[in-house]
Every structure is written in structure tokens, then in C-alpha cells.
Prior knowledge:
A: mainly alpha, 80% helix, B: 336 residues, alpha/beta, Rossmann fold, 25% strand, elongated
Amino acid sequence: MNWRSIRAIALKDFKEVRQNKAAWVPALVVPMVFALIIPLAFTLLPQLIPAADVAKEMGDMQDLIVRLPPTIQEIFATKSLEQGFVIYMTAFLFAPMFLIMPLMFSSIVGSDSFVGERERKTMEALLYTPASDGTLFMGKILASVVPAILLSWITYALYIVVVNAASWPLFGHIWFPLPTWWPLMFWLTPAISLLGMSATVLISSRVKTFMEAYQLTGSLVILVLALVVGQLSGVLYLGVFSTLAIGTLVWVVDAALIYVGVGTFNRTNLIAKI
Amino acid sequence: MGTNMESIIEIKDLHRTFGDIRAVDGLTFDIQPGEVFGLLGPNGAGKTTTVRLLNGILPPSSGTVRVFGLNPSERGEQVRKKTGVLTEASSLYERLSARENLEFYGTLAEISEESLGSRVQEMLEFFELETRAGDKVETYSKGMKQRLALARALLHQPPLLFLDEPTSGLDPEAAQQVNTLIESLSHKGQTIVMCTHNLIEAERLCDRVAVMNKGHALALGSLSDLSRKLWPAIWVDVKFWEAPSTLQLEAVKKFPGAKQVEAGTDSLSVRLESKESIPAFVHHLVGSGASILSINPRAHSLEDIYFAIQNGRKMSNELEIHTRHRIEGLQGGTPE
């Protein structure tokens, strides 16, 4: 594989997506909502509404907190009602929602890269270049996965700043992120980015337009919502160990999907779909 | 197939099927360096599939292909480093500028980083695109896009160039610009394989053509070769300064190679048995004392040849047009 060509393909695909507002505007709006609006709402709410109402809410939340592992319950034991509300909402309940971003961004760029190229009739000239099938495939993977991971990490950084700043009056010190967030950010997020992309590769061979591919890969959000519901119901809790385990499982699925994708990503198959 | 070691392309009994469809069916030819070779035929004739097979984009179902002595389906990357392809659709990145398009393809063609910038600039200037080089390609006219696509195909200075319908969809002015460029490349010794529907262009640009239909090469050769094979006899039109005498006309009719004579008041049309008879006929005419103003052999255009071949194929599954015409000739028919 030729890394100079891989880099050129990745940069070209990214430049192309940047020119497609319909693709990147939603991909930027969601991180802004996640990094600014939601943490502000969760942290300012208990500081603005009467403490009694927060206590009432926390009364309902006690049912959820008792389902958490004992080590996590200890965090809440030493905190006030308002602090407990902020910690539960920003550090636990909302955590899996962050996985929507890498999934969404990698499937947007992946759909534009794999299907959009065919839709815009630019694939044929690309196939006539000396770049090997492996180089083309790797370039397109990097075009979708690297920006998805970077965008997610930037959003995490913003989220950390906003949560700590907005909850400073309640805590008086930097308390976030909790240790459970590290595997979420650096193990599960890259795995989910790759999942979005590898699913796009498989879907791309069966659809004709960017929108079709994007909508189909969008259905993977159900997996993330399942994690949210699991966390809410106490069935699945995203702790350090469980996040590492789920991440490992996703990496294995990624490897399997990429293995199948590489098998189908060759010039003979690609030219047949032009 | 020629066994010439210098052949850039050698194809022998090449087949490519897609299910029940035979896209390429028993193709055999070779192409020499510096040659402009035309693949002619209607849609679905197998021209584009042939180009894809020659570039290793598709593997053949059977038969052998060698490009620069390499098997494209095994050494596609090496082959494609030496080929440039102008695809039928311009296949340009419309959201990027001309410069970005060329820099991208130049990188993939493995032009060194040091020389890429200057080579791109050279191509932009050569194709008169430098003033709009930073504009998005979507703002370009069709002719500009085609020039840019041609620049992309030539960027890495490939010894072999494939042009798939190079003037398709262009207005006459843009088509003429592209044809002039192809002609200048040809004069510089560039080997070109050109797929086209445009017979006038092919006649102007190609040294040899293969007339294809449903994956078969119905005929292959230069314009004069094909013309001679299709119409062995040739009509020669003679104009006289003064009307010829009866004696002189009789002398013409007695010329051994003359198959048919049509006389006007101050002109004469003679069907000779072959092109090779012309010098002897002229000598004979001069010897008869006729005052000659002009002598013109009637040439067949590529269009005549193409339709004769395509129509001939429709009449019989196996093309033996020249045989059929010869038979008609023997029977006193008029192939023309």
C-alpha cells in the first residue's frame, strides 16, 4: 500500500464532504447540542429550580441509583441532592449518547466516500489510477474514521469544560470526567467510528445513493439507544470494565465487517456497479 | 495476432462475458507504438469493456492480454502507471478545483512531490485552464471539463492513452479543440486507443480501426486496407480539356483492367479492377492522345466502410463482405 496515495484519498474525500453542506451541517449541530446545550441544561437546572423540586426528582432517581454498582453508589453517598442530580445526568445517563457522534460522522463521510463517489460518476477515473484496491480502501476508511474520532474527542473536550464550568458553583472544583469516561472516549468511540464506516462499506454495495446509504447506516443508532435504555433500566451499566468489554466486542465485529468489506471492495465489483 | 516484440498491446482470442452476455467475443489484435487505433462500433459493441480489460479493471473470461508485455489482470498497477484514460463521463470532482483534481490524480499516479506542482501548472497552461485553476470544476463549461479530463489523463506522461468518446456531448468548437489536441499528441508519437462513434473524427485521427459489434471485431485495418478489401475494384473519374474522340473512348474501353466505362461529354468514369491498375491506366490514357484535365480515384470514407461492414454483418452472421462484393462483382453487380 502507498501511504502517500492513502493520505491523498482521505484528504480528497474529506474536502469533498466539506463542500456538501447537507452532509456536514447535521454532523456539526449534534456535537454542539451535546457539548453545550445539554450539559448546560443538566448543570444549571438544579441551580435554578427550588431545592425541594430537585429533591423530588432525586427521590425518583434513588430507584435508579440503587441499581448502580456499589462503588458508584459511594460517589452519590457523599454528595448533595443537586450534585447527585448533575453527576447522574451528565456523567452516567448521558454518557452512551455520545456514541451517536462517531457513528453518525463516520457513516456520513463513509456514505459520501463510497456511494457518493459512484453517484457522482467519479469512481471510474479513480479505478483507472495505479492505486491498488487496498490503497483505495484504506484511504476511504481513514477519510471517514479519523475525522469521526477527532470530532468526537473535540466534543468530549468541550463537554468536559462546559460541565466543570457550569457546575463549579455546586462543586467548587473540577470533578469531571469520571474514570468510566476514559475507556468510553479512547476505546469504545474509535471502535464505534469504525463500526459506522465498515457497515457503510457493506451497505454501499447494495444501495445507489448517498441518502440511502446514510439512512441505512443511521439505523445503527438503535445500538446506541439500546445502551442508553440498558443504563436507564439498570440492565447494563457503562462502567470501566463493561465499556472495555463492549468496546472489545465492537472491535471484533469491526474486524469481521472489514474482512467481508475488503473481499467485496475490488475493481471488478466496483466497475460493475457504475 | 502479430508477434512483433514492440507491440504495446497484444490481444489474442479475448473473451469477457457477463452472465449470458458476451461483451467481448474473440477479439484479436495488436497495437504498435505511436499508432492511433480506433475502436468503432455502436453502443454495446464492447469498446469500453475492451479498455477496461486492457487496464486490468476487469479480468478476461478467457484469452490473453498483454500491455507493455504485462498481464493487466495480474499486474494492473504497473500497467496503469503507463496508461492514461479519458473516460466517457469526465469523472471529475466537481466540488474541487481543477488544480486540486490534478494534484490528487498526480499523487495517485505517483508523480514525485517535488515535481507535482510544476507538472500540474504545465498541464493547466497547456490546456489553457490556468486562469480558472482555482475555481470549482462545477462552474466549468463542458469543453473546459473535457480539457481538464484530458489533462488528467496525460498528467503522468503515459506512453499509452485511451480516449473513450473524447468529444461526446461537446459543441463543435470544443470538439474541434479536443481533436486538435489529439492530433498534436499523435504527431508527437503518442500511442492512442480511441473509442468513438464519430466516424469523421476517427477517419481524421486513426491510423487503423477495428469495427466492432456485439463483442466481435468485424473488420480491422487502415482505411485504405479496409476500403480495398471491401471494394477491390475502384472507380476513377477523368475530366478532359477537350471532349475525347470516339477512337480515344474505344482505346479506354480496351484497357485490360477496365471493368466498366461510363462516358459523359467531356468526362469519363472507369471502374478498374484494382487501385494498382491506376498508373497503367493513366499511362494508357496519355498514350491514346486524350487531353486530360484531371484524374481522381473515388475514395471511400470511413463512414462508407463502417456502414458497409455493419450492414454486411446484419445480412450474414459471418462477415465476408469482401467475398460477397467480389461475388457481386463477378456477377456484374455494383458494390458501390
